[in-house]
Amino acid sequence: MQIPEGESRGSQLLPVLSRLGRLLREIEGPDYPSSVATAVLRKLTDEGPGRVTDLARLTRVSQPGMTQLIGRLEKADLVRRVPDPDDRRGVLVEVTEAGRKLLNRTYVHYAAVLDEMFEQLSPDDSDAVIRALPALARLAQAGEERRSGPAR
Amino acid sequence: MQIPEGESRGSQLLPVLSRLGRLLREIEGPDYPSSVATAVLRKLTDEGPGRVTDLARLTRVSQPGMTQLIGRLEKADLVRRVPDPDDRRGVLVEVTEAGRKLLNRTYVHYAAVLDEMFEQLSPDDSDAVIRALPALARLAQAGEERRSGPAR
DNA sequence: TATTGTTATACTCTATAACTATA
DNA sequence: TATAGTTATAGAGTATAACAATA
Q: Which one of A93, A122, A132, B105 has the fewest beta carbons within 10 angstroms of its own beta carbon?
C-alpha cells in the first residue's frame, strides 16, 4: 500500500464507494439504458415533459450531449420530441410508453441483482446497510449540492 | 412515482446507490484517470508488474480493451511494457513514477471531495455511514463474486 | 492445439466549436 | 444580444473477429 493511509472519513469511504461504483457499472448491461439515460427517463416519467437544456443541467452533460442522447432515445422510441407551444426555439421531450416500460424493467432488474447480493450477507450486515441508507442518501445530497450551489 | 414501490432491500438500496454512483462519475474529471485506469494503476502499484490478461480479468474488460488502455497509459507515460523473461508471448506492465504520482493525486483528490461532503453531514449521519462501511464492503464483495464464481 | 497479445474495425458516449432560429 | 437547440467533428472507451508469435 503506497497510498496515504486513510484516517479521514473520506479516505475510509473511498475504496468501498469505488467498489460499489464499479459494481453498478457492471450490472448496466447492453440491454439496459446508461445511467444518464435512466436519469432522463426517470425525470420525464416522474415530472412530465422537459426541455433539453433542463435535462442537460440535471444530468450535468453538455447541451449538445443531451441533444445527441435524446436523438438516440428517440430513435429507440423511448422518448418523443414535441414543439414547445410557448417558445418556438425550444422543444419538449416526453417519454413514450416504451420508455416507461423500459425504465420499469431496468428498475426491477437492478433491484433483483441487489437482492441477490443481500442474500449473501449476514442478517447483521443487511441490517447495517439498510439502517445507513438515510444517512447515505443525505451524503449523496451533500455531494449533489457541492457543485450546484457554488458553481454554475 | 410510477416505479413499483420498493420494499425489498435491493429496491431500497438502488436509488441511493444510483445517486452515489452518479456522484463518483462526476468527481472523475478529465484531470484524473478513469475508474478502470485507476484500478490498473492501483493493482500495479500495490502488487508490482502484471500481465495484460490478468489486468483484463481483474477489471473485467476484454483483452483487446486492456491492450488499448495500456497503450493509452503508456503514451501518457503512466505505465511501461517490458518483455516477460519467463514467457516470450507475454509482456509485463509496470507502473512508472509518474503513474504512482497520478494515482496518489487521484486518491487525495477523491478523498478530499468526500471529506467535504461529510462536513455537510450531522455527526450522527457521519457515524452511521462509517459504521456501515464493513457491511457495505462485504456487500460489494458479494457482488464481485456474483459473476466471477458461476461464470467465466 | 491452446494461450498471449495485437491489429482492424465499429459502436456508444461525450465534449468543444460553429451554426440557425427565435426571443 | 442572448438563449434553445442542432450539426460537425474529434476523442475516450469498449467490444468482437481475425491474426501472429510462442507454448
A: A122
Q: How many domains, in total, are found in chain B?
A: 1
Interchain contact B98–A (C-beta under 8 A): no
A45 reaches B (C-beta below 8 A): yes
pLDDT tier at B103, thresholds 50, 70, 90: very high
Question: Crossing angle, helix B97-119 and helix A9-27, to 10 degrees?
Answer: 100
CATH number for the domain that contains residue B40:
1.10.10.10
* Grid cell digits, residue B38: 485507476
pLDDT digits (tens, 9 = 90+) for A68-122: 999 999 999 999 999 999 999 999 999 999 999 999 999 999 999 999 999 999 9
In a domain, A59, yes or no: yes
Gap from B14 CA to D17 C1', Å = 37
CB contact under 8 A, B19 and A121: no
A72 found inside a domain: yes
Distance from CA of B29 to the nearest CA of A (A): 12
> Based on the number of CB atoms within 10 Å of its own CB, is A83 exposed (0-12), middle (13-18) or buried (19 or more)?
exposed
